[in-house]
Write a structure and sequence with these properties.
The chain is α+β, with helices and mostly antiparallel strands and 227 residues long. The chain has two domains: 83 residues, 2-Layer Sandwich (Pseudouridine synthase), CATH 3.30.2350; 131 residues, Pseudouridine synthase (2-Layer Sandwich). Strands 1, 2, 3, 4, 7, 10, 11, 12, 13 and 14 form a ten-stranded mixed sheet that branches. The protein has a two-stranded antiparallel sheet with strand order 5-6. Strands 8-9 form a two-stranded antiparallel sheet. The longest helix has 12 residues. The protein is globular, with a radius of gyration of 19 Å. The two termini are 21 Å apart. The mean pLDDT is 92.
Amino acid sequence: MSTQINGILLVDKLAGSTSFHIVSLLRKITGIEKIGHAGTLDPFATGVMVMLIGKNYTRRSDEFLSSEKEYRATLQLGITTETYDLEGAIVERNDKVPSLAEIELALQTFQGEILQTPPMYSAKKVAGKKLYDLARQGIVIERQPVKVRVAIECIQYNYPMLEIKVVCSKGTYIRSLGHDIGQFLGCGAHLFELTRTRSGTFRLEECISQGLLKNREFDISPYVRKL
């Protein structure tokens, strides 16, 4: 395939894959080394990955990274994990069953501009070290709260599962949001499922499946857009 491809490719990431794996697949298909993305997703998460192909677009990554994001998230109440998601070890169980009124109050509490403490299991760097590297060594350090903007809407509540829609600013950790909601409810919670449904103006229904990229002969050129 021609190495003259430059542009944006919208990919629906599969659960169990890393963001870097999509970069690797695209490098094999295109032969282009300069490929990046506008915001990572945890391996268990799915949804919109804005892939930037060619140096004219990778150099604009900050422009796309700063855009508003939208997620559909499912929290499992009653279980707290060390990573705040389903992949972490369970650290606490609680049999409290919050009422719908309590759920609504909790979600209302986390609306608008809030202060959020980044989780230890994150790629955020403090003093040049990634937090998850420290966490894996059993080291917990103080993290400064970050101001983020959040709008949450309850989609469905069927204990222990709470499904919510989240629209948020750059730098928001949905895992931390789920953990904090669980703490507010007094029962604990962790992030069970996560799908990014929008990144800036790019929506999930515009994406191609990551599965198509497993074929090194797949022609991505009809799906690459210029901005």
